């Protein structure tokens, strides 16, 4: 019979040849081959590896190959691509308001992604982020040209930090850590006024009087809750 003429470790399987090899008490499948010649070659190679102590089970080889392919895919992930994933995850979170997600998307698309979006996450450095925030901070304010700062950089830093922290928390993203640079401090955007920015009682009363009747009390209540110091 044909089966008795086959080498040990090779059996017929659906008109093909299945190869197995025992190593350290465990039987490993080496695959199924179309021809006996290929099956013999696979068995001989595996036996040689077993003799040299270099045998690696095919299942382990396949797992390592899949892991390498997955790593290559995650390593290729750009900030653009991750930001979109992150925003989609936030949008799907019922605890996040749509307005918050919309605000984050606007900040990233306007102030981050045009310059840093094409950078791979694994290549992004704290130095790049710090330099970008410094560039944003140096831009003049569009609404208040005479201001000492434009108020953009601190907000961008908060959103970008959250975005990168989201990537760090994902085990399938190749960003284990990121030393985010010190965020720019918040500087008042509006130029300083001679009399300061603290409302007087008269100013608060005038604002309340200028509001519709049902909103006038809200102005006074808001001032009280915010612990606004009125000048005398």
Please, could you describe this protein's structure?
This protein is mainly alpha-helical. Among the domains are: 64 residues, no CATH class; 91 residues, DNA polymerase, domain 1, CATH 1.10.150. Helices cover 52% and strands 9% of the residues. It contains nine helices and three strands. Strands 1-2-3 form a three-stranded antiparallel sheet, covered by helices on one side. Strand 1 and strand 2 form a beta hairpin. Helix 4 packs across helix 7, helix 6 packs antiparallel against helix 7 and helix 8 packs antiparallel against helix 9. The longest helix is centred in the first third of the chain and has 18 residues. The protein is elongated. The N and C termini lie far apart (111 Å). One of its GO terms (molecular function) is DNA binding. Keywords: DNA-binding. It holds the Pfam family Phage_int_SAM_3. It comes from Occultella aeris. InterPro entries: CB, DNA_brk_join_enz, Integrase_recombinase_N, Integrase_SAM-like_N.
Outline the fold blueprint:
Layout: E1 10-13, E2 16-23, E3 26-33, H1 36-52, H2 58-75, H3 79-92, H4 98-111, H5 113-116, H6 126-138, H7 152-169, H8 201-210, H9 213-225
Antiparallel strand pairs: 1-2, 2-3
Short description:
By secondary structure, the protein is mainly α. It is built from nine helices and three strands.
- Secondary-structure element order, N to C: EEEHHHHHHHHH
Low-confidence stretches: 188-197, 228-232
Q: What structural category do the secondary elements indicate?
A: mainly alpha
Indicate the radius of gyration in whole angstroms.
33 Å
Instruction: Please count the beta strands (DSSP E, at least 2 residues each).
Output: 3
Look at the structure and give the CATH class of one domain.
Answer: Mainly Alpha
Shape: elongated
Instruction: Indicate the proportion of strand residues.
Output: 5-15%
Average pLDDT across residues? 82
- Tally of separate helices: 9
- End-to-end distance, in Å? 111 Å
